[in-house]
Amino acid sequence: MIGKAMEAAINKQINAELYSSYLYLAMSAWLDGLQLPGFAHWMRVQAQEEMTHAMRFYAYLGGRGGQTALEAIQAPPGQWASPLACFEEVAAHEAKVTALINGLMDLALEARDHASVNMLQWFIAEQVEEEASAAEVIGKLKLVAQTHGGLFMLDKDMAARTFVMPPDLTI
Q1: Residues that bind Fe cation, according to the entry (predicted)?
Q2: Percent of the chain having pLDDT more than 70?
Q3: 71 is in an annotated binding site
Q4: C-alpha span between 29 and 14 (Å, rounded)
Q5: Least confident of 17-21, 139-143, 150-154
Q6: For the chain, what is the domain count?
Q7: Rg (alpha carbons) of the chain, rounded to whole number
Q8: Is residue 104 part of a domain?
Q9: 151 near 83, Cβ under 8 Å?
Q10: Is 94 within any annotated ligand binding site?
Q11: Which CATH number goes with the domain that contains 99?
């Protein structure tokens, strides 16, 4: 049985992951409006990943005898100054999510909740990947900033991203 403090914290994290999915979907819509289908696709894949993160927490909470309590999802912004600004927000957002995951880990360690510590290890590693992915795109956007056609070429690269459902999770 999961402790009440961890149950409440995981419920907050489920909301944060759902917001992340919603944010990236909003970014995808904005990028589609700019006629950047590759960037929009990248964001839709990211939105799918965030939804699976929410579902991983959801399944874990239920598996530990906890009760999921869904709350309203905050509305995300709908436009950004540029594709670079959009991805800079992705990087900042992922840093915030990393801090939330680290907070969950601190709570699990304090409560000596070894099952949650074990589960959260996956998210710790995932956040390293999430932050690196955003930083990579930002680096590429900065590289092509002064070239004609660079954004077009990068947009084609972004379209190659794929989503693979984790084998241990079903939605």
Answers
A1: 17, 50, 53, 94, 127
A2: 99
A3: no
A4: 23
A5: 150-154
A6: 1
A7: 17
A8: yes
A9: yes
A10: yes
A11: 1.20.1260.10
